[in-house]
What does this fold into?
Amino acid sequence: MDLSERQLQILQAIINDYVENAEPVGSRSIAKKYDLGVSPATIRNEMSDLEEMGYLTHPHTSAGRVPSDKAYRLYVNNLMKKKNLSARDKRLINERLAASRDEFDATIRHAAELLSEITHLTSFALTPATNEETISFIRLLPVDERTIILMIVGESGNVTNTTLRLKVPYTQERLDLLSKNMTVTYKGRTLDDVLKSHIIEDVGTDIAALNALEAGVMPGFLRTLEDMLNVNLYMEGMTNIFNLPEYSSIDRARDFMQLFAQKDWFTQKILQRADGVVVTIGDENTMMKDCSLITATYHVDGKLVGKIGVIGPTRMKYGEVTSLMEYLTNNLSESFRLTDGEDKTERNDK
Amino acid sequence: MDLSERQLQILQAIINDYVENAEPVGSRSIAKKYDLGVSPATIRNEMSDLEEMGYLTHPHTSAGRVPSDKAYRLYVNNLMKKKNLSARDKRLINERLAASRDEFDATIRHAAELLSEITHLTSFALTPATNEETISFIRLLPVDERTIILMIVGESGNVTNTTLRLKVPYTQERLDLLSKNMTVTYKGRTLDDVLKSHIIEDVGTDIAALNALEAGVMPGFLRTLEDMLNVNLYMEGMTNIFNLPEYSSIDRARDFMQLFAQKDWFTQKILQRADGVVVTIGDENTMMKDCSLITATYHVDGKLVGKIGVIGPTRMKYGEVTSLMEYLTNNLSESFRLTDGEDKTERNDK
DNA sequence: GTTAGCACTCACCCAATCAGAGTGCTAATC
DNA sequence: GATTAGCACTCTGATTGGGTGAGTGCTAAC
It folds into this structure.
């Protein structure tokens, strides 16, 4: 049972009004503000029908109507139209991202900043997931008699290193030999893959002398792989929600803040989401039932996939936020396209 | 004009009571709970005197007394006695820190976690400041035709790296030569020092061929130095304050949260504080007038200095918190003492 | 110097009241 | 049959006023 054209208009009007003012909207104010050519009474009848169908709710008898999650879903799927970003916002984004273009993590952090500045909501950004990253080479460098640096370099330019203190002394040759052996063994394999075959493989059983050194290095190697797999989460604008009426109760505010207390858990939840712009509204979220969450994906060199996102109350300017996120992720993916011949340097220091 | 013994007793009683219950304490309840051998009326007179001297305040005529910042200061300086940690807390700390002993940043994060878990306040930890860190060596490693990794290693084992995309191709020899030249030029100098002499020095003017490569590397080198100088801030238990009555108003809670919105600013403020256990109470803080802030320092290998801290309302168990922090920083410094011969690995991946 | 006694002051809670916004229904109108 | 005007009804939120209890400050007695 479809909604009539007029019902859609009314629903849209209610959503617009509620998103703007955060107060239950009555029939009279709709009739006045939006020129629908019908009287408040008619609107009341339609509202009553819309409520019966589950698109509106009623805080109490004598209050106006509030859109339900279902209404927002309908809005996002059918009614919402893309907004063009203001020239000001576009310029802001271009400038800010260009400024930190050289530094990978900084760019991503800036994207999150922009997101929260423009939407006045809470935003976040994840550095790309590196499950698919493959090992390019492994290098061991001497520091002093007992200390070496282990460095793992991925094909996409990810670099992670650890300082290792060894029990036994080493020689330069042995170090080089082990570097080479490890590179040969692991080159081309994904981080995930190597880590899962957790069993410390015999990297160089044929060279018996290596074993002591190797044994000293392996735990650090695995730990570094793990570290390389971790994505970084940058959060911005957490305190923005304090300006929203829906979080004027301390309990709601606390619940919201606690979402981010466990960063790891939150990160996992975000990583599980599909690619592209994804909107989940209220109850559709397992994490926080009275929030909406919008995520979008950007690409690095067309391969690795990172995410940015916005969290706010279900009362949110979906059209504007999704358009902004599309623009932002396009811009990011463009920045991170490592076409050759370009004078581009990239940071990897997570 | 000193306080009499009895006045001190009463003041201490009021502080104890208020810290415990967060409610203005009246003369009668002091007389009842603490056996001071005098009647409520006498206590009232003393309280009146203490108020005149600025140690107590009065929310309104018919309310009990509340300790002022000045009272807490007196308490911290003179009255407070060290508490022994419970066996449970000690074990908790030892176990948790030992578990992540290998990973530098993780250990520090765990210290902050412990601090907030045990005190039920908001805590933070800073990785050591690296102003004093000196450069040990610089290494350039090839990745592909146009990409190299720049790695700076400090004497204390700090390692930071960047991936650089070059305009011009390079050869292995030139890379090695530049590595050596840079190492010779910068070895033993502090990061700060090198960065301040910002002028791109002529690393190898005698070898004309190097110039193009060198020019491509220098900006990345300086950026990496900057990055190496940054300290990491880990915050824990931010939502703990929601359980405290003083933050039941949304405005106070917002103000508190906004303190941490600008991490960089906050970090700077903390870095400026003196070494050792430092307590600043209420108005003594420029940052947040109605909080108390306690910081303490730990050492890495006896040299580099990092900080941990706790923030909460001025109503705080100063004795317990400072004792805890002393224990924790001792434990941390102990963990980070890089005595030789030990099988210790240390992470540097900030 | 200490204490008992007592008037006084607020903050807090509760109930009652009132105005305003908005609905839901009915009956009249197009 | 759809639309609208009119009106009774409902509920919230702000305001008011009395009652209670905790606690002070003062005075006079010990």
